[in-house]
Amino acid sequence: MTIGTLAKAAGVNVETIRYYQRCDLMPEPEKPYGGIRQYDERALSRLHFIRSAQWLGFSLKEVGELLRLDDGTHCDEARGLGESKLLEVRAKIRGLRQIEKVLDGMVRSCLSQSNITCPMIASLYRD
Q1: Exposure string (b/e) for 32-70, b if CB count within 10 Å is 16 or more?
Q2: CA gap 19, 81 in Å, rounded
Q3: Helices (H), 26-118
Q4: How large a percentage of the chain has pLDDT more than 70?
Q5: Which residue, 12, 53, 96, 117, has most beta carbons within 10 Å?
Q6: How many CB atoms are closer than 10 A to CB 97?
Q7: Over the stretch 54-105, which tens digit does the pLDDT of each residue have?
Q8: What pTM did the predictor assign?
Q9: 3-class secondary-structure state, position 111
């Protein structure tokens, strides 16, 4: 398939594929003399892998590391990367819960007071 067909099948932009190639995440097939590069199902599978890993929060650098570990003999190292990402996600969730609690209090302060200044906005000015 052409790069355009590959991009459409993967739900990405052609420039995304080219960027992944520049980052060494996607191989660039040989271009036949006077022809167009052709991509196979492995390229589509690799794009799905990259996008799935990104959705889980892995950076492109981490995705590259996961791809390098994909030979069936590095499961412990891959698990380590997964565990590290899981700790990051849990920390973000804790932070988001704290933000939720503060915002909830701020919104409630707006409902309970009828001052000239908005209590929520005023609270953002406090040190």
Answers
A1: eeeeeeebeeebbebbeebbebeeeebeeebbbbbbebe
A2: 23
A3: 41-55, 60-68, 75-112
A4: 95
A5: 53
A6: 10
A7: 999 999 999 999 999 988 888 999 999 999 999 999 999 999 999 999 999 8
A8: 0.78
A9: helix
Q: Choose which CATH entry (3.40.50.10380, 3.40.50.1970, 1.10.1660.10, 3.40.50.150) describes domain 1-68.
A: 1.10.1660.10
Largest CA distance in the chain: 75
Burial grade of 102 (CB within 10 A; 0-12, 13-18, 19 or more)? exposed
pLDDT confidence tier of residue 16, bands split at 50, 70 and 90: very high
d(CA 29, CA 8): 18
Cβ proximity of 66 and 32 under 8 Å: no
Cα–Cα dist 3/6, whole Å: 5
Number of Cβ within 10 Å of residue 3's Cβ equals: 19
Mean pLDDT of 6-16: 96
Whole-angstrom Cα distance, residue 104 to residue 87? 26
**Confidence check: pLDDT of 127 > 60:** no
d(CA 17, CA 5): 11
